[in-house]
């Protein structure tokens, strides 16, 4: 599949892991997008940039980084620093699969009270997410 930023200065190809969409409610995603970001997991190592002169990487935590176009500001991906996990902005794809499934919300304990999705989704707290990426069971 192919995707790009708003201005077209950063383009990529990618293989989706599945068609499950996740929403992140963490404070960084909300500040970055003025809402939630909706993402799709990609196959490890499959994100390849075709045009990347305006690609920038932001070191957003001890274990994660965010990619964006520095010409138009479009958020493109989040990945672990070791690149063992990566997801992309679901709306950066040029064509979205017809069978996308909104299945999970993360950092649900950071979600403001003034909005809620109607869909029934799996919900993970910040502790759940941190444990997941650290290989620890969150209980």
UniProtKB/TrEMBL annotation:
Keywords: Lyase, Metal-binding, Zinc. Residues 1-103 form the CENP-V/GFA domain. Transmembrane segments: none annotated. Belongs to the Gfa family. GO terms for molecular function: carbon-sulfur lyase activity; metal ion binding. InterPro entries: CENP-V/GFA, Mss4-like_sf. The keyword Protease does not apply. The keyword ATP-binding does not apply. This is CENP-V/GFA domain-containing protein.
């Amino acid at each position: 599949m192919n995707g790009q930023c708003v201005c077209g200065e950063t383009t990529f190809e990618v293989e989706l892991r599945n068609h499950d969409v996740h929403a992140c409610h963490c404070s960084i995603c909300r500040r970055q997008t003025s809402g939630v970001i909706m993402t799709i997991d990609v196959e490890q190592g499959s994100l390849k940039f075709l045009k990347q002169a305006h690609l920038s990487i932001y070191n957003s935590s001890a274990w994660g980084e965010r990619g964006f176009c520095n010409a138009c500001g479009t958020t493109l991906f989040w990945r672990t620093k070791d690149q063992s996990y990566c997801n992309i902005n679901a709306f950066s794809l040029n064509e979205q699969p017809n069978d996308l499934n909104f299945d999970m919300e993360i950092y649900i304990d950071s979600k403001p009270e003034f909005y809620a999705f109607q869909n029934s989704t799996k919900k993970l707290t910040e502790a759940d997410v941190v444990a997941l990426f650290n290989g620890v069971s969150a209980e």
